[in-house]
Structure to design on (1040 residues):
């Protein structure tokens, strides 16, 4: 509990973050403005004496005294983990706690709590704005709240009877995404799946059901089926091809141009070549936002080809899907309404729970046709018109993954999600402009999305050093400064910075690059 | 904040549950005993003046004053949701909040929090001891703590670099389970999968990799492969057979005896018949704990047959796996060490997060062989000897599912998990003895595990009513009393009661059955 006395001369408002504690403020005297930074959104309220406000766990807040004097009472629950908050980023040190993790000795509940706190504090801090290693960053208060509710309910999405509200929420989210894609209301459908890889997996599964429904009973028979994905597509297509019985040789990689986009004319040539053999081209994936360069394949051109040859068109928008919400970026997805299916991850750019992924399709009834089997009578009793959502999935018991994305969307609105994307795009523009002024930094391909790929040239003293970008990356990581990823092309290694953190500022990007330049 | 004055004459200790609030107690005067019920375990501590104790969210606690007088201060954070606590069970009323769920109107963070609380309170209360509908019940404080840590870290299990501690925890849990199964230390392996269905799925995938490694590249070709499961096995084998390209016709259902166990001699006959055709028998699943009757297939006998015909033996122990921890029940799993793979769900009987499932195998390197593909270089940089766990899975980004089970195990120990199973078995014995004294109740098959299946005969006034058990079930549900499941056999419907709740008492079971008998 902290009591603070304020005067109006307090021009510097107090902006702070309480770590993992929730902060309740009671206004005892005076008039205050309280601004809460919820990641995707700021909310401002004027508070009068006697009023209270709870800043949720995970949010920053800033208070300003509007009257000549004031007095506030602050209560933090549970206690502030100040030690954690002083560090922006930790690399992990597993060795210090490894022995405590063993299951051969048990501990009392208070020690368990301490151990769990230590585990958290020894884990990679993906909430730091200097964490840019994955296609996600930041911990949102809306997600924390949603996850608390999921923990406290533990219901399964398999049946409407066991989770009426969460089933409804899943279908609302699926429907709203289908509407943004531009699919007809009576045709669109979808389901939560455990990750973007699983969404791509489901796409192959549904496409096979559509074109070869007899395989549901008979299994994979007959001529080889071919899957066309860009050379930069996600590796999950290979995994899915193996698991689903197509085999890795079913994958036909389509060449990309220098920006990482699939060459549509090459796609058509490869399809024609396949037709000359005994194999059947049946599935094309257009990637919207590749993992390394963030490239968007030309969906509209690819859609024309798919229509011509009667091939399923899937868009892997696990990373680039948020462009649906941005007027500025939507043109990158031009033609997406022609897709048969789309993969969308809300746990990436939009900060939902890991995982919060959706498989979406414009062929209603196909999910049921592909996934429903007999033998679940002990579970599925519904005499409702609504289909139990477990029948759309090859999972049985599963949690309410969609709730966190629903909570974020409900709090910031469709427009708010678009503004969030646009804000990050502006930071990218500032960052690329700045990079061009730095002689030792070189953009690898001008970004279309929120991946900045750049090469760091070694300083003069190290002029002949090889793999300098990779070395820089390792230094930033081992020094607990920042975590960025790297990749390589024929000219060598380069860094990949992902702009995804809800509280990201240009200065964070600049800071990381300055640290990168300082490596000796 | 509540201040309480005590005298020793206070013989009735105060036993209570704070709903979703954590309770901190400060001893101001006197000597106290505080007993905390953590679900699988009770912990007792003596507290002296000046000492504090936090009872975690989700636990019950009971205080007793040991001295002639005493004074305690109790702080609840956040506030007690007393309205919620007065009801033991709610059926859901989606309609009252349906309009508030729409994504077309956004709400401020405080209203979002209220809305999420309403969603929770309108959801099925799986924490009630009168919830017996699924193969899980109860919300454990250890799970709540683990899930909070997962929310606050959001790291992906794909790489050790991104989640060194959670990767270690996953392998510790997998290894400890493999040890209990009886597999050699250098051979056993496993991975978290999104649900028991996914574990069965992975079993088919790995078995195919073992016997037909060429299919990884070439896909499903050649003769039909046959999968043998009992007629009472989980429907997920059918789903997996469709998705993996075997087709539903690959499934050969093996007859069961009157207790629901697979007839091993029938299995051998069916295998021999298959060999006479062009098809290849390659996979047998023995179910340890069927969904309806809780039957255990005779693993030892099945193992002999599998060895004889060189067939993969998988044990679906998603529900019955906890018998591994109980000396009393372990004989039901006799022969499990001969299995090639096992599915184990910790979110069922052991109360971990939904989902917390494991695929386990005694063939190290097979998970990698079945799931690893090229093309993930942007992600997998490890030069370590430890394999990044994403390579063992067909998922990419995924959360630390195993943490909650690790936390429970760490708190109660291997012995504690066994005692938990045995305690519920004792309740089952009391319940079945009581049922036999009630003329209108009839056990369907004497239970071997924690499923009690029984038929309720209608009262005299309804002597000719059909499907009475199903009607009883619906009444218990609509009256907000209890939620049990039902199934049917050739003699009609029957109720299925699942004993899984950590705080279950015999009286809860008796109460449900008394309500069932009162239905008119």
């Amino acid at each position: 509990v902290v009591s603070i006395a304020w005067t109006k001369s307090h021009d510097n408002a107090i902006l702070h973050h309480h770590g993992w504690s929730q902060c309740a403020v009671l206004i005892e005297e005076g008039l205050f403005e309280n601004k809460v930074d919820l990641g995707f959104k700021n909310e401002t309220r004027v508070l009068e004496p006697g009023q209270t406000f709870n800043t949720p766990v995970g949010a920053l807040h800033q208070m300003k005294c509007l009257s000549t004097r004031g007095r506030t009472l602050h209560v933090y629950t549970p206690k502030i983990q100040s030690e954690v908050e002083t560090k922006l980023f930790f690399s992990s040190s597993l060795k210090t706690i490894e022995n405590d993790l063993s299951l051969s000795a048990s501990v009392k509940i208070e020690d368990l709590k301490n151990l769990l706190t230590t585990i958290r504090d020894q884990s990679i801090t993906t909430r730091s704005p200097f964490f840019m290693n994955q296609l996600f960053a930041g911990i949102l208060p809306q997600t924390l709240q949603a996850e608390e509710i999921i923990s406290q309910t533990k219901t399964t999405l398999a049946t409407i009877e066991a989770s009426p509200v969460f089933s409804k929420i899943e279908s609302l989210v699926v429907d709203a995404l289908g509407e943004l894609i531009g699919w007809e209301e009576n045709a669109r459908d979808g389901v939560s799946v455990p990750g973007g890889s699983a969404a791509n997996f489901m796409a192959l599964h549904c496409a096979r059901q559509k074109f070869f429904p007899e395989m549901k009973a008979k299994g994979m028979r007959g001529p080889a089926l071919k899957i066309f994905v860009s050379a930069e597509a996600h590796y999950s297509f290979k995994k899915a091809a193996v698991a689903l019985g197509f085999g890795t040789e079913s994958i036909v990689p389509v060449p990309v141009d220098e920006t990482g986009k699939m060459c549509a004319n090459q796609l058509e040539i490869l399809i024609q070549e396949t037709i000359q053999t005994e194999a059947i081209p049946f599935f094309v994936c257009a990637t919207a936002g590749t993992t390394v360069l963030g490239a968007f394949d030309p969906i509209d051109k690819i859609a024309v080809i798919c229509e011509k040859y009667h091939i399923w068109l899937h868009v892997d928008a696990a990373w680039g899907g948020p462009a649906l919400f941005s007027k500025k970026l939507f043109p990158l997805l031009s033609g997406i309404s022609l897709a048969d299916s789309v993969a969308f991850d809300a746990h990436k750019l939009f900060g939902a729970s890991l995982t919060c992924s959706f498989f979406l399709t414009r062929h209603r009834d196909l999910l049921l046709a592909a996934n429903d089997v007999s033998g679940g009578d002990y579970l599925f009793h519904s005499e409702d018109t609504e289909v139990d959502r477990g029948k759309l999935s090859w999972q049985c018991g599963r949690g309410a993954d969609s709730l966190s994305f629903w909570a974020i969307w409900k709090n910031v609105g469709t427009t708010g999600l678009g503004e969030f994307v646009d804000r990050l795009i502006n930071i990218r523009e500032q960052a690329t402009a700045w990079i061009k002024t730095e002689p030792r930094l070189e953009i690898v391909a001008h970004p279309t999305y929120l991946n900045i790929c750049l090469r760091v040239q070694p300083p003069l003293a190290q002029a002949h050093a090889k793999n300098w970008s990779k070395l820089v990356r390792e230094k930033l990581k081992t020094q607990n400064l920042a975590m960025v990823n790297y990749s390589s092309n024929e000219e060598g290694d380069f860094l990949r910075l992902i702009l995804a953190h809800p509280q990201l500022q240009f200065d964070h990007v600049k800071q990381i690059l300055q640290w990168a330049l300082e490596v000796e």
Observations:
- Residues 403-436 of chain A form the longest helix (34 residues).
- Chain A is about 30% helix and 20% strand.
